[in-house]
Amino acid sequence: MTDTVKSTVNIGELQLDHWRQGEFYEGRDVSFGALLGLKDLGISYNEVPPGKSGCPFHNHHVEEELFFIAAGEGEYRIGERRIPVAKGDVLSAPAGGPETAHQLINTGAVPLVYLAISTTAKTEIVEYPDSGKFLAKTNRGADGKSHFRFIGRDHVSVDYWDGEPGA
Predict the structure, then answer these.
(1) Structure confidence at residue 143 (pLDDT)
(2) Does residue 76 contact residue 82 with C-beta atoms inside 8 Å?
């Protein structure tokens, strides 16, 4: 282990990143799996203010996620269902198609606090059913960073041979 990798982390000592996107998305969060030396498992601590969500409705084709609600209450959108959640609940988001799309929304009066734990695949496709987008990405090059990342919509696809010399 190096000096930057730890065996334990105290969440209260981590510096949270505060961000906001539009009127509906906002959070304070930090990813810290790498700090613990984890290579195939991601983990983040998340705080979402009342009336907000920390991410768009989405599904993963490869990665699985698990959420542990530490405080607050909200609504878990998964597929076509909406499930009330509160402190102590553990939520699953298996890999799959739109039937596994998921999103946490804070419906309470205090911050919704949760841990998000996920597998970290080398290649992933994420769909966003509400907006018709998809994300294609690769993870963990030699430097630990993604080397390919593309967000688009599938209705602008091209032929396999499009643009190839001599095709």
Answers:
(1) 62
(2) yes
